[in-house]
Amino acid sequence: MYFYADILGGDGMGFIRANIVPILEESKRRPFKGRLLLLGQGDIYFSDDAYRQMAQRVGVNLDSSVQPALSYKPDFAEKGYLDTQSVFRRLGFSEVMALDYSDFEGADILHDMNAPDIPEQWRGQFDVVMDHGTLEHIFHFPNAMHAVFQFLKIGGRAMTSSPVSGFFDHGFYMMQPTLFRDFYAANAWEVNTIKVVQFTSNEWTDPCTFIDYEPDRLDPSKYGKMDGNFCATFCVATKGEQSTGKVIPQQGWYSRQAAWKPCSAVQASMADPM
């Protein structure tokens, strides 16, 4: 467990300190390159100074050949907030694209993630698919995860940042860490990291805490004992040669109970009509 108490963050949804710091850490673990697909356009809620400070703290060198640029939104630019393209190109990506159901923010790919499949032309085209708070707004979560699988190349990474608690009526779902761990385990992905992120509504000054997730580790804090903070799940998983995107997981907690056994007569696949 560790926390950042002295790095300025943001004041809204999109890319804030709570999810950009673990992205920087993943960049340090395995440097980024190639094509990035963002699920949603993704506003940036920090300045260039804050970005440099966070990168320096993590130990990541930003690409100096890419010039920082301000957001295309006037109110964001007035605050000194950066645009998405320059933020991620400075991390090594050669191309940054955004997907959305609507073109209201100029998305590059228009697609409904509730659909059972993605267009053929986009299959296996991306090195990283990054969700910064979109999956919880998609009703058909299984199809959305299958879409992530389809968009990625073999060896590509899915990076998700999703709310766990404290976001009343924000989306359809709150995404628990076990959801991602169990989905990726059932579908033969390599899970690189899962973190529980705690932060407050005053992210400018209050600490942001990152806890490495392990099953049952946070059991004492399960029921009403998270100190009223916002909580989110940050996860990175790598798609392998044998990975799939449609196997329905059973929650891992049950499989860890000695007396629990699945019924051999019951089999399910996300490919089945729902």
UniProtKB/TrEMBL annotation:
The name this protein goes by in its record: Methyltransferase type 11 domain-containing protein
